[in-house]
Design goal:
- The complex is a heterodimer of chains A (about 110) and B (about 110).
- Chain A is about 0% helix and about 50% strand.
- Chain A is an all-beta fold and about 110 residues long.
- With about 110 residues, chain B is mainly beta.
- Helices cover about 0% and strands about 55% of the residues of chain B.
- Chain B contains no helices and eleven strands.
- In chain B, strands 2, 4, 5, 9, 10 and 11 form a six-stranded mixed β-sheet that branches.
- The N and C termini of chain B lie far apart (about 35 Å).
- Classes of the chains: A mainly beta (about 110), B mainly beta (about 110).
- Chains A and B meet through strand 4, strand 5, strand 9 and strand 10 of A and strand 4, strand 5, strand 9 and strand 10 of B.
Chain lengths: ~110, ~110
Amino acid sequence: GAGVSQSPRYKVAKRGQDVALRCDPISGHVSLFWYQQALGQGPEFLTYFQNEAQLDKSGLPSDRFFAERPEGSVSTLKIQRTQQEDSAVYLCASSLIMPNQPQHFGDGTRLSIL
Amino acid sequence: GQQLNQSPQSMFIQEGEDVSMNCTSSSIFNTWLWYKQEPGEGPVLLIALYKAGELTSNGRLTAQFGITRKDSFLNISASIPSDVGIYFCAGQSSTGKLIFGQGTTLQVKP
């Protein structure tokens, strides 16, 4: 497709389980960003990749959060030992070569931790 | 985490009215962006501003990048029902990450 694709769209997990969220960026987009959006709030930055290099992970809330982009295209955000406060929409965005090009967002994965 | 101050928080207006919302920050940004988000979807880019003082239009939307680089506003003229949604401002840091406002929820009464 032409846009950023995220899967799954919805994920329900029990507290303590591990989850993996996938992002397929727009073809040719070098920069990839993950954001977390709590209910009623604006998105908050988690981490940034340029190609396969993770250049900024300052927004990851804890060491339970891990992101990778091994071949510089598809990215996976993994959350280990999930907690209820991890419930949120996780958004992925991609942009062209430079990081300050406009970012285009996917529709997100809505994660609910029971 | 850091967020921008966006106001108003919500607006309920009559179709055909003009709308104005703004965003302020204690930090300087080199790029300001405005996004619209509808339920169950990701934010969609409306306007990007790259230069202090810049005024940019996209159809019925007009946005300005404040001269101090610490604020921006968005105007929507002659609102229509499909303008309903949540509007977010975002400042872009030199590293590329976006800092978002809390959003303005717009409801339009036909």
